[in-house]
Design goal:
By secondary structure, the protein is an alpha/beta fold. Helix content is about 30%, strand content about 25%. The strands form two sheets. A six-stranded mixed sheet has the order 6-7-8-3-9-10, with helices on both faces. The chain has a four-stranded antiparallel sheet with strand order 2-1-4-5, covered by helices on one side. Helix 6 packs across helix 7. The longest helix has 17 residues. Bound molecules: adenosine-5'-triphosphate (ATP). The site of adenosine-5'-triphosphate has 12 residues, from strand 2 and helix 1. It comes from Reyranella humidisoli. One of its GO terms (molecular function) is ATP binding. Keywords: ATP-binding, Nucleotide-binding, Transport.
């Protein structure tokens, strides 16, 4: 579905230096696969997502969807950023309907579709509220509904739960799994949370520090549907520990142990 073939992206910084954000990244993502991307800050995760979104182009290499090069944003791709970025003057319902309006795809079923999505994320009854009347977590749920309303086949999520409190974040993780199982799509999800990465993914892509390259791809064979109990299994701990070691190395800090 999504194919990255030796993708490199170089930015020209303001002081004239060149920053290689991604170098030779190759990745094949199958239809309806759930891929999470983890790695240290600045390793190019958002850059990779923006290339797949068609918001920026690779400097070298090829990024394609279904065989066609990605040269611009595509309507069948939904995007959720870290901040909900809702329209402050529009109601919750109008915010969710916004992509359909922009694409001139509003029809007699649109409101029902938006209401069903809001119900799915537990926001029935909030349709006519304004975004400022909602908590951060509720706003992010609205942003997720907005990204799903036109039933995109690809969903790109850049630390979508990063600004949420820990409890809401756990709840949203499970909610996303539920939405994905009810409406399967290809998901590319950037996170700083190893727990989140493992519990969500079919495969976790671990990236190395700048210039960002793929360090390792880890298959997560945990059975679905997954739940909070999944996080208590030995398989979950093993995968998480492996990723932690890839990112941090085998450092031990504490009494009687040398920091390495
Ligand atoms: N528009 C830009 N102009 C110049 N440099 C950029 C630009 N966008 C990203 N970079 C640089 O590219 C590198 C990768 O950035 P990117 O945002 O993709 O990393 P990231 O892994 O998503 O980081 P984080 O986890 O902190 O969000 C960084 O060094 C960043 O400073």
């Amino acid at each position: 579905m999504i194919s990255l073939n030796r993708v490199t992206r170089i930015f020209n910084s303001r002081d004239g230096d060149q920053v290689t954000a991604l170098q030779d990244v190759s990745l094949e993502i199958g239809r309806n696969e759930f891929i999470t991307l983890v790695g240290p800050s600045g390793c190019g995760k958002s850059t990779l997502l923006r290339i797949v979104a068609g918001l920026i182009l690779p400097t070298a290499g090829r990024a394609s969807i279904g065989g066609a090069a990605i040269t611009e944003p595509r309507s069948e791709t939904g995007i959720v950023f870290q901040a909900p970025t809702l329209l402050p003057w529009a109601s919750v319902l109008d915010n969710v309907l916004f992509p359909l309006r922009m694409m001139h795809r509003i029809d007699s079923t649109s409101t029902d579709k938006a209401m069903a999505l809001l119900k799915l994320v537990g926001l029935s009854g909030f349709e006519s509220k304004s975004p400022r009347e909602l908590s951060g977590g509720m706003q992010q749920r609205v942003a997720i509904c907005r990204a799903l309303v036109h039933d995109p086949d690809i969903l790109l999520m850049d630390e979508p739960f990063g600004a949420l409190d820990a409890l809401t974040r756990e709840e949203m993780t499970m909610e996303l799994l539920r939405i994905w199982s009810e409406r399967p799509k290809t998901v590319l999800f950037v996170t700083h949370s190893i727990t989140e990465a493992v519990v969500l993914a079919d495969r976790v892509v671990v990236m190395s520090p700048r210039p960002g390259r793929i360090q390792e791809i880890i298959e997560i064979g945990l059975p679905r549907p997954r739940s909070f109990e999944t996080e208590a299994t030995p398989e979950f701990h093993e995968a998480s520990q492996h990723i932690r070691q890839l990112i941090f190395g085998t450092r031990h800090v504490g009494p009687g142990r040398a920091a390495a």
